[in-house]
Amino acid sequence: MRLNTQYGHSHPLTALDPRVKLLSALALLVMVISSRGFAFPLLVAGLSLALCLGMGVPLRVIAVRFAEPHFIAFMVVFLKLFFSGHVPLFSFSLFGLDLIGHRDGLLEGLLIASRIAGAVSAMALLGFATSFTELMAALAWLKVPRGFIEVALFAWRYLFVLFDDAQVIYCTQKNRLGYVGYRRGLRSFGTLAGALIIKAFDSSQSITTAMVQRGYDGTMPLLKHKPFRGAEVALSMTFIFCMGVIWNI
């Protein structure tokens, strides 16, 4: 499994300072959430998806990443259409229930759905163009609590270690017919979950002891930053200014 989900290593976007990318993404996020129409969020979504494809992100990965947000957006539109609004658009009967679709509810739901699409696309682009460690370093520069950064980094690192252990246990159980039948499968899954919890607890104690013995004082070198580059800052400010003009139209 990849520890780094960054794509397009030769793409200019991946070479930008992660702090510049994070601030630009946050500015876009604010504009998308506060937009008054469909055009700007859809523009951000289309631009982000185009950049993702330009970076070489597979369509399957994009589809998986956007599956849950799109389902949420669909449910918002559905609920707003039938349970919100006052201007009837259409009606029909289903299993003895009279359902009425409302025009103003549909428009409100589509607006929320467009904001979801724009916001998720911008954040997905940031995730594809920035490694997890770089993103955590940028958050540390924004004065996010250091404890949160450290926990996130350790969780990210050892999540894959536990995943490898889970695969080993699962394959062993499967080879011994541990998942033949519903009851046996639940019992095997419970054993797997318990073994992982014990493994995580033991690993946390041993890792803490090892790091303290090696002089760990809470300071991580990766959280230190180089000075900003003027060209990147100017390019980012120009981009945000242009998007702000479009947002204000």
* Percent of sequence in beta strands: 5-15%
Order of the strands making up the biggest sheet? 1-2
- Distance N to C terminus: 45 Å
Task: Sketch the topology as an H/E string, one letter per element.
Answer: HHHEEHHHHH
Task: Look at the structure and give the mean pLDDT.
Answer: 86
How would you describe the shape? flat
List low-confidence stretches: none
Structural class: mainly alpha
Structure annotation, total helices: 8
**Can you summarize the main beta sheet?**
2 strands, antiparallel
Rg result: 24 Å
Q: In the residues, how many domains can be counted?
A: 2
**Could you estimate the helical fraction of the residues in percent?**
over 70%
Count of β-strands: 2
Write up this protein:
This protein is mainly alpha-helical. The protein folds into 2 domains: 12-140 and 226-248, no CATH class; 145-218. Helix content is 70%, strand content 5%. The protein contains 8 helices and 2 strands. A two-stranded antiparallel sheet has the order 1-2. β1 (88-94) and β2 (97-102) form a beta hairpin. The protein is flat. The two termini are 45 Å apart. The model has no long low-confidence stretch (mean pLDDT 86).
